[in-house]
Prior knowledge:
disordered C terminus, 0% strand, mainly alpha, disordered N terminus, 70% helix, globular
Amino acid sequence: MRSRIFPAPSPRLPRPSADPNYARAQLFSAKGDYARAVADFDRLVSLAPDNKEFQQQRQSAIAMQTELARVMAKPPAPAPAPAPAAPAVATAVPPPPTAAVPPSVNQQIDQSRLLINQANCAAALERLNQVLAGDPRNEMALRLRALAYMRLSRLAEARNDLNDLLRLKPDDPLLLALRGVTAAGLKQFDPGMADVNRAIQLDPNNALAYLGRGLIKAGTGKAQDALADYDRSISLNAKDPLAFTERGLAYVTLNQVDKALLDFDEALVLNQSNDLAKAWRGIALLLKGRNSEGQVDINAALDKNPNNQAAQLGRGLALLTSGQFDRAVVSFNQIIGKTADDSFARILRARALVALKKLADALPDLDYVLNLRPGFADALAVRGIARSAMLDYSKARDDLDRAIAQKETVESYFARAKVYEALNNPRKATDDFRRATELAPAGVFDVLAQAESKRKIQELSKRMPCGSGQATGTCL
């Protein structure tokens, strides 16, 4: 019995998607039974220790098991202690002070630093504003206030303080890197790039400057180029959760969702309250088709902050992948136009609109993204799908050709095969359908396209049989 359940590994291992034990482990993960999922993944890894996908899925299941255990084990808030009874007889009452002594500047700065560490940046700003009202050139107060503004996403105000600091210290590499990161958030990419490059020139081991340069490259649609800077930043400071989070976002953009999951897991190990990483891990899980796990992260992020825009994006994605297209559009409408980069949300909204056959409404979103990021493969692929549905096959094929030239995906080949089929070119259609079955699916949209491609190959083979002298079509 045991040998039938876990057969001995052969020299050529089967694809993970074809292994029944792998499928069972994924089923356990989808049901939230992470203990049994981890047990299955442990067995798979022992049989195939070099299989990266087994390792990644096992690590993700362990991370979700740990997260759920932490949530379930959270103790209730203790009841307030009863107030002590008043003494029957007062012993000695100190005289009241004649006047309250205001805290010193150093005390206010120390209190502000503590409040920032406690994520109470609003209270820290009150104290720092008092200090700077009396001494506008207080360097430490300016540094702390810039940091507080950044954490509150008040980037323009943070930049103003950094400008003042750099007038005092024009060659400070840390300040230059901070201003570069701030500029990236404000989409001021050219001055931001000048700042981070200057910071790296002054200090080649400045981890924050490499992170800032990665942010700028990713913000200008160069996610692949950004990876090298994120890698360098992490090699210099492997304890920065933001660097892992941003590299994970770059991997999502590049459809390397398994690598993204590992980075989001690491970011949450470093900082469990990193709600950005939690929300994006949920999105990555949804893109992998692991809906129940993804919903855990999305709901946890929304429970903590209903205005978490990444989590709101995840909720829209969950509606889209479950076929609730109208509700998905409403969800994406609440996000688009409110974030620094809403390209991903626009592409998802376009997908929902295509599913609703509102094709003319989908095109503006895709054109917007492609004006911002010319040649962005995901937007080209979805626009090709929309144009194909509008029977504009020439433009559809052009978009899909360009998308495939940059990045081969199951969905792009399937969509182009449908175009060739509509143009009555069964040979090219079959070639693309077949290629779609050979590629490894990168996400839930690829999985759906691959299943349909297999069906189409069978359908076309029935139309065009092989080995018959009476066959009029091309042999498949």
